[in-house]
Write a structure and sequence with these properties.
By secondary structure, the chain is an alpha/beta fold. The protein is 34% helix and 19% strand. The chain contains 7 helices and 9 strands, in the order E-H-H-E-H-E-H-E-E-H-E-E-H-H-E-E.
Length: 237
């Protein structure tokens, strides 16, 4: 389902940060967002508001009443597909062009250079990564963002396609099985404030990537970021 949104220009929506160097490059960027749940439904709006050109969203699920606590949907969306509900929210808050697919992402799915994964299954996350990596291995202009959260913790991994050291560590230490995963991480438990923080972390990582890759600005691109709302600590590696 392809949705062409309103005719307002990107300049009107992004004029508040139009003087920032990275803003000009966002107008030519397409992002793939896999998962429109607690992470994706919130991150979609935050990423779209960077002024990107197009957002491809993937999710096979439908909106339920239990999703209201941490996912960016309206009560009227209950029973609708998450991708169509997310597209409607994007239409109300941004002018990004949306391509919405109610489907699972597999190794055969063609993702864009910049891909954000916000799934709650390690096996599904691995398939998304492999689909991206098979296509963009060695590409310094490709960027992968893996978002994970629980009721009180937000975690983010990110790297470019040519960053062999980070990718090796990610494959060996971060892509464990569902059985090995921490029970609360990426579970059904959600809070809006952690979801919003996760969305902000994802958008910020894309800005950091664009600054470093296209603006030639010295910008630190962390491999791992974790915020713990219980201890109020922020870990950056």
């Amino acid at each position: 389902m392809e949705l062409t949104l309103n005719n307002n220009t990107a300049e009107r929506y992004t004029q508040r940060f139009s003087g920032l160097p990275w803003a000009e490059y966002m107008k030519n960027i397409t992002v793939s967002l896999v998962g429109c749940g607690g992470i994706g439904s919130n991150a979609a709006v935050t990423i779209a508001r960077l002024g990107i050109m197009k957002l491809n969203i993937f999710d096979f699920d439908t909106v339920e009443d239990i999703n209201m606590a941490g996912q960016l949907f309206k009560i009227a969306h209950i029973g609708n597909s998450k991708v169509s509900a997310t597209a409607e929210v994007l239409n109300e808050f941004t002018n990004v062009e949306v391509f919405a697919l109610q489907t699972r992402v597999t190794k055969e799915t063609l993702l864009t250079k910049i891909t954000v994964c916000g799934l709650d299954s390690m096996s599904a996350r691995k398939e998304v990564f492999e689909s991206w990596y098979d296509r963009y291995k060695g590409n310094q202009n490709a960027f992968f963002v893996d978002c994970r959260m629980s009721v009180d913790t937000a975690q983010l991994y990110c790297f470019t396609g040519d960053d062999d050291k980070r990718i090796k560590d990610y494959m060996e230490n971060a892509l464990f099985s569902d059985e090995e995963a921490e029970p609360t991480l990426c579970s059904a438990k959600q809070t809006t404030y952690i979801a919003f923080r996760m969305a902000a972390m994802a958008a910020e990582s894309i800005v950091d990537f664009v600054n470093r890759t296209y603006v030639n600005k010295i910008s630190f691109l962390p491999y791992f970021v974790e915020y713990d709302s219980i201890s109020k600590t922020l870990t950056i590696k």
